[in-house]
Amino acid sequence: MNKSLAPITCKNCGNTFQGNYCNTCGQKVIDKRFTLKLFLRDALSVFNLERGFFFTVDQLFRNPGNVLKEYLSGRTKDYYHPLKYIILLAGLSTIFVLITNTFDNTIEFTSRLAESLTEESASSSSNLQSKMQEILRNYINVVAILMVPFFALSFRIFFARSKLYYGEHMIISCYALGTSTLISILFTIISGFFPNLMVLNVTLGFGTQFLIFAIFYSRLLNKNIIISFLLSTVSIIFGFIIMLIFSVLIGSVIGIVLKKMGVI
Ligand SMILES: [Zn+2]
Asked: CA nearest 56: which of 44, 68, 45?
């Protein structure tokens, strides 16, 4: 926007510089009043959709190994931040799930499947189930994000020979979980139109996660895809187990504290 070479005094920190951004604090030069157009353009750039996000999605589908290698080696500027990536996709996924009501259908479908397998239905368990359903419906977007630290820990253990740091596994987990969330959004849209494909949606939803992690780690580490798939499967299952144990522990601690305080 500001192409002049005349020195500019930063409105944020007072530093004198040339260009569009302050070289000390990063404040963007805004030499105009906020019109509605400028406000909206500024708001869009918060999500950085036009450059960072779509570019990252495209690159992750074309060449995930290259994205991860570049990002982990410090060439991060072109890519959408991994945490923002998963937060945005988890949010989008929640919106789509609520719109298409897939979640209710999925629960109904799986409980009907379970019923037909066990040939019995207890009313108490269905009551608990509907409560769980309610909670999960509200927090399912958070669950995907909460999985990241546990998956990263598990991959750190099972991919120990890769010598990757825990923080690096966090980055890979964000991109992999975000990407499988994106694919599950596509399944959600499709099954919204074709409710009979629900069984496909459930199976593919789980399968995608294993496959995405396997492909990402295989490409990043130049590892055999079969070995990578087996290690990823073990890591994901173990990651789920530590997350479950952790939530039960946290739940009990909160329960004890609430009881001591006399809340319950
Ligand atoms: Zn400044």
From this structure: 68
Domain boundaries in the chain? 1-33, 49-260
Contacts of 231 (CB under 8 A, 6+ apart): 158, 159, 217
Contact (Cβ atoms closer than 8 angstroms) between residue 70 and residue 79: yes
Ligand 1 centre and the CA of 33: distance in Å?
A: 19
Question: How many angstroms is it from 19 CA to the middle of ligand 1?
Answer: 12
Gap from CA of 18 to ligand 1 centroid (Å): 11
Q: Can you give the pTM of this predicted structure? A: 0.75
Tens place of pLDDT per residue across the chain (264 aa):
445 578 889 999 999 999 889 999 989 888 888 888 888 877 777 766 667 899 999 999 999 999 999 999 999 888 999 999 999 998 888 887 777 665 566 666 677 777 776 655 455 556 666 766 666 655 566 677 889 999 999 999 999 999 999 999 999 999 999 999 898 888 777 776 776 666 666 667 678 889 999 999 999 999 999 999 999 999 999 999 999 999 899 989 998 998 888 876
* Length of the chain in terms of residues written: 264
Q: How far is the CA of 9 from the centre of ligand 1 (A)?
A: 8
Helix (H) or strand (E) holding 242: helix 225-260
Token code pair at residue 71: 């990002």
Distances (CA, A) of 151 to 22, 167, 243, 248: 38, 11, 8, 17
- Ligand 1 centroid vs 51 CA: distance in angstroms? 24
Find all residues with CB under 8 Å of 18, minimum gap 6, and list them.
5, 6, 7, 8
